[in-house]
Design a protein that fits this description.
By secondary structure, the protein is α+β, with helices and mostly antiparallel strands. The chain is 33% helix and 30% strand. The protein folds into 2 domains: 182 residues, 2-Layer Sandwich (Arylamine N-acetyltransferase fold), CATH 3.30.2140; 59 residues, no CATH class.
Length: 264
């Protein structure tokens, strides 16, 4: 973790900042450095999720990952920097339906007498700041988010986002119970193999930037800016898809995607 901590400090991290400001800085840098990507799912990389695996894949090779990779790495960095942080597990709700049970990893934070969550692994729907439990909403280029005590079928705390109808919609729910590190590999196996997994069907790369969001699959690239403008580029063939990947992804990620396309 020392290497990643040094990189954060070189990027402007200041230890004297208030805890929420420091955590928000780390979340913004994680969004910049570690895209949400599922290439390992599609290529069948079944390596257990360990700190060594995360450092090799994401720091050394400059790859991204899914929630059970990005957020555990975030947890380790926060702990290294002195934060009171633990691993949590939530169940995602999409289009009114609950997804696979407790397969979303997140970080539980306790700062200055207040409970927060930190999440750098929710695709391109990132708040880019810790969310306080029953506190004020947080606005990012990806939307408006809040954390509420709310009874659901999947827990007593819900992360919510304002939808296009300006209504609060549950994105995921959980209980404030620390999750053992060993559960990460269980999450990974479920996401890799379960028929209802949303991530073992097609390639996805997603990021939240300071000015908007982006997602790429094998058919199109979609950008949405903070001012509401949107652009969708349809790939005419594999070559145009790979050209976009090389332009927007790290060399290591682009190389893995090319290998996947060669094998598929």
């Amino acid at each position: 973790m020392e290497r990643l901590v040094r990189k954060l400090k070189k990027s402007g991290y200041v230890e004297s900042w208030p805890p929420v400001e420091r955590a928000a800085f780390i979340l913004r840098k994680f969004a910049e450095w570690f895209p949400f990507e599922n290439v390992d799912v599609l290529t069948g990389n079944e390596t257990d999720v360990t700190p060594e695996f995360l450092m090799d894949k994401m720091v050394e090779k400059q790859r991204g990952g899914l929630c059970y990779e990005i957020n555990p790495l975030l947890l380790l960095v926060l702990q290294e920097l002195g934060f009171d942080a633990e691993l949590g597990a939530a169940t995602i709700k999409k289009d009114g339906q609950w997804a696979l049970d407790r397969t979303h990893a997140l970080v539980l934070l306790y700062m200055e007498g207040q409970h927060y969550i930190a999440d750098g692994g929710f695709g391109n729907r990132l708040a880019l700041s810790p969310l306080p439990l029953d506190g004020e909403a947080v606005i990012s280029p990806a939307g408006t988010f809040r954390l509420r005590t709310r009874q659901t079928e999947k827990g007593t705390i819900a992360m919510e986002c304002l939808n296009d109808q300006e209504e609060w919609a549950v994105q995921y729910a959980f209980d404030w119970n620390p999750t053992p590190w060993g559960k990460l590999s269980v999450m990974k196996h479920t996401i890799h193999s379960h028929p209802h997994s949303p991530f073992n069907k097609q390639l996805l790369i997603a990021q939240t930037f300071p000015d908007g969001t982006q997602s790429i699959n094998e058919e199109r690239q979609h950008r949405r800016w903070g001012d509401g403008r949107e652009e969708t580029i349809i790939f005419q063939d594999t070559a145009s898809f790979l050209e976009a990947v090389r332009h927007d992804c790290s060399p290591a990620l682009a190389s893995e995607i090319e290998k996947y396309k060669t094998q598929s």
